[in-house]
Amino acid sequence: MLTDIEIAQSCQKEKIVDIAKKLDIPEEYLELYGNYKAKVDYKLLKDLKDKKDGKLVLVTAITPTPAGEGKTTTTVGLSDGLRKIGKKSVVALREPSLGPVFGIKGGAAGGGYAQVVPMEDINLHFTGDFHAIGAANNLLAAMLDNHIQQGNALNIDPRRITWRRAVDMNDRQLRNIIDGLGARTDGTPRQDGFDITVASEVMAVLCLASDIPDLKERLSKIVVGYTYNNEPVTAGQLKAQGAMAALLKDALKPNLVQTLEGTPAFIHGGPFANIAHGCNSVTATRMALKLGDYAITEAGFGADLGAEKFLDIKCRMAGLKPDAVVIVATVRALKHHGGVPKDKLNDEDLEALEKGLPNLLQHVENITKVFKLPCVVAINRFPNDTEAELKLIEDKCKELGVNVALSEVWGKGGEGGKALAEEVVRLCEQPNDFSFAYDLDLPIREKLETIARKIYHADGIHLPGNTPKQLKQLEELGFSNLPICMAKTQYSFSDDQSKLGAPKDFKITIRNLKVSAGAGFIVALTGDIMTMPGLPKVPAAEKIDVDENGVITGLF
Fold first, then answer.
1. DSSP 29-65
2. Which of 154, 254, 313, 510 has a 20 to 30 Å separation from 304 between CA atoms?
3. Phi/psi zone of residue 356: left (φ > 0), alpha (ψ -120 to 50 degrees), beta?
């Protein structure tokens, strides 16, 4: 059996200029990065402003498990499946972070015969967007520390700096550091730290900005710390936004690639959904909507994280209205939620499956009853799934008025996504009453409570230590009308990753609140979530190699 990377390397890719022609993109908007990658100038959207949008389809999933769900694979395969039934589809995805690529997850460009290519480029440096984001983040950090070193005219309290440096790698050694050591001219010693680049507010800003003026405006609002008088200090006060935007001007343009079957794909931006807002750029999504009849996008991790943020943050800010939602699940993952260990997941176990099903059904209810959107459950089929197991899932979903479609895109590509595509087309023709989970004018605490109760099905929230003081300060500074970006473990509806299925009788502990004023939301860090992951005992990097001809192996 071929590996994902072997399948990707064996496919006959089309020239990117030919992919662009499928979307009628004029050549003057293309910036080629070799034969198979291009950036598309966001100014194209201005020329398309009067063109009617296509249908917007969000792909999300159940709570992740080690058994895997195949959300990106399903997203890519669905887009190919729509093309197979004669629909003009475009897929819009996030760019993978080097952290998971070299860490525990490996490549993130789909799998089997439902991938985006060139897979190796996408998973590694791609077009340099993440490097630009890291450089802009660290330029701001350097200018901040230099301002303090050069006399501190803004009266910044070094103990209240909130801006951290960034690197796109899982490096736990950099979570908490002391810098500025040495001679007086080497800087002011202080406690500091690094976030992974995908958790940087610069990443969120890039993904939500519409053009360079909007980008600069958002960058200028970034709060980097506080003065001795408790006043916020912004990047604009440090006069950093212009130089940061200069580093980001090309990164702001969406990247165009293709699937294995030649379906156009925009891959742009990559905030994590467990520590950031988990969606690709607004610009790429809008471009997909203008250029295709169906824009298929995904949001990170389970629907309680990525989908909630896509709907409550991205759609609210960008004025987007989804037409349908796909929730991806596997029999194996649901049995894991029902208590089956990983080495027993291939055995039929209807009892365990029934115990794990509430996880799927809770996600379905959130989408249909909280957000009031039509959805379909896509079962990413594995060879060991039995007919009895598949029927049990179908019967339980039908009780909620939701259909189930088998997805066999991993082994069959677009051909295996036709059934799912047909159901998505049907759902997109239905009217919907899309609603947000909460109103922006609610107090911060009520918004936190609403997400915890409505989406996580918790009993409420717990604000220990300094968190109530942080909440009060954010309200006093005028940030109370911003949406909430929850930073929470992806492995549970709760903030305890060991609680599988659909746990009850718990509260969400919020240990830190901070404003991302440039991005336009408040980040609530729950449980023990970290903004800088670490490598596992055996990192994926140990299996990645390149031969004398430059051919990469080990990226799945």
1. GEEESSSS-EEE-TTHHHHTTTSPP-EEEEEEESS--
2. 254
3. alpha
Tokens standing for residue 555: 């990226």
* C-alpha pair distances (Å), 267 with each of 127, 209, 475: 10, 16, 36
Q: What is the CA radius of gyration of the chain?
A: 23
E-assigned strand segments in 71-216: 89-93, 110-111, 114-117, 156-161, 165-167, 177-179, 190-192, 194-196
Whether 525 and 510 have beta carbons less than 8 Å apart is answered as yes
Q: Which of 414, 418, 423 is nearest to 323 (CA)?
A: 423
Q: Are 455 and 308 in contact (CB under 8 A)?
A: yes
Note the pLDDT tens digit of each residue in 515-554. Answer: 999 999 999 999 888 899 999 999 989 988 999 999 888 8
Q: What is the pLDDT of residues 474-490, one digit of tens each?
A: 999 999 999 999 999 99
At position 213, the amino acid (one-letter code) is: P
Catalytic residues: 71, 73, 94, 105, 273, 301, 382, 410
**Residue 515 φ/ψ, nearest 5 degrees:** -95, 135
Against a cut of 0.85, is the pTM above it?
yes
Residue 330 has what pLDDT? Answer: 93
Alpha-carbon span 134 to 503, nearest angstrom: 37
Nearest of 503, 491, 251 to residue 358 by alpha carbon: 503
Give 234's contacts (C-beta < 8 A, 6+ positions apart). 220, 221, 222, 223, 224, 517
